[in-house]
Amino acid sequence: xxxxxxxxxxxxxxxxxxxxxxxxxxxxxxxxxxxxxxxxxxxxxxxxxxxxxxxxxxxxxxxxxxxxxxxxxxxxxxxxxxxxxxxxxxxxxxxxxxxxxxxxxxxxxxxxxxxxxxxxxxxxxxxxxxxxxxxxxxxxxxxxxxxxxxxxxxxxxxxxxxxxxxxxxxxxxxxxxxxxxxxxxxxxxxxxxxxxxxxxxxxxxxxxxxxxxxxxxxxxxxxxxxxxxxxxxxxxxxxxxxxxxxxxxxxxxxxxxxxxxxxxxxxxxxxxxxxxxxxxxxxxxxxxxxxxxxxxxxxxxxxxxxxxxxxxxxxxxxxxxxxxxxxxxxxxxxxxxxxxxxxxxxxxxxxxxxxxxxxxxxxxxxxxxxxxxxxxxxxxxxxxxxxxxxxxxxxxxxxxxxxxxxxxxxxxxxxxxxxxxxxxxxxxxx
Length: 430
Prior knowledge:
A hairpin with a 5-residue loop joins strand 1 (46-47) and strand 2 (53-54). The chain has helices at residues 7-29, 41-45, 56-71, 90-102, 122-130, 133-145, 264-269, 272-300, 312-340, 347-350, 352-377, 379-382, 388-395, 398-401, 405-416; strands spanning 46-47, 53-54, 109-110, 115-116, 150-153, 169-175, 178-187, 198-204, 215-221, 227-232, 243-253, 257-258. By secondary structure, the chain is of the alpha+beta class.
C-alpha cells in the first residue's frame, strides 16, 4: 500500500503554482481587481441595485482568468482528451482542489462562482452518458466555447431535496406536425439563469407522485415563451444567481429531451459523485487554510506579554481541527482513488456511502474551522478584513446544496444497515 502522491502529480502542482504566480496573481492585482477579494469583496461582486446579481466586471474577470488557464492547458484538465482536456482523474482533481482552497481566497480558485483555473465539468459526463450525438456536439463543445450554458432545474419550491414528488409536469403535445411537450410548473435555486442559454428542466411525465420512475429532462432554451425568472433569492453570501423560475405553457420539441423518457432521475444522479468528492476536497482545503492562519496568528499575537499560542484554550481546539483535517484528507484521497479504479457505473452501488461521508463531514469541518479562526483572531477575525466570515458564509451552503447532510447521512445509513450497497448480503435473511 503506497500513500505517496504520484511524482507526476506533484510536478503538475508545481506547474500550476508557477502559472498562478506568472499569470493569475498579476491579473488579480491589476486595475484594483483585488477589491473582489479583500474587505470590499461582497460589495464589489454584487450589483445590489439589479437583483443582487453578480456584477458584470466580476464575471468578466473570472472569464479572463479561465481563458488564460485554458490557453495554458489547465482549465479543461478534468475533461476527456477529445474535448481538449487531459482526462484528469478523481484523485488528481481532489488533490488540486484541496491545495487550491488551502491557498485562501484568490482568482486562482473562487468557489462562490464555482470558478477555478482547473475547471470542473460535470455536464460533460451528463451529455456523454445521456445525450444524442447532436446534443453532445452542441452542448459539450458549445459549453467549452461558452455559447451554451446550461442551468439545472431540479429543485422545486415545495419539495426541496425530494425530487420524486415533482409538481412540474410535461405532457405530450404535437404542434405543426412536430412531436413535443407542454411544460408547466416552478423551479427553485436554478443557478446561473442570468447567463444560461438553456435550462435542464426535470418534469413529471408519467407515474404517481413519489415514484422515481416517470421523470424526464428537457433542455429548454431560456428565451422560450412562457419561461420566466420570477425573482433572484438573496442569500447568506452574496451575490446571488439563484432564481425561482416559472414555466407556463412552455412548449418544446421532443428533440430537446435529454436521456430516456421517464428516466430523468438517473441523469440527475450521473455526476453527483464527482461533484461531491471534489467539493469535499475544496472544503477540506479551506478548513486547512483556517487552521494554518490561526496557528500563525496565535504564534505572533502577544496579549499580556505572551504568545497567544501558549494557551491550551487556543491550542486544543486547533489540535482537534488539525487532526480531523489529516484524517479526512486520507479518506478523501483514498475514496477518489477508489473511484478511479472501478467502472463509473459501479460507484453508486459500491462507493456512494464513502463519498457522502467525505462530503458531509468536510462541509461541517470547514464551518467549524472558519468559526474557530474568527474566535482565535478576535475582533479582526470577525471583520471582513480577514476572509473567515466569507469562508463560513460560502461553505455553509454546502451543508444544504450538495445534497443536504441529512440526505447524505441517510445514504450512509442505508449502506451501513444493509438496505443498499455491498452489506445488503449480510442482512439477506432479514
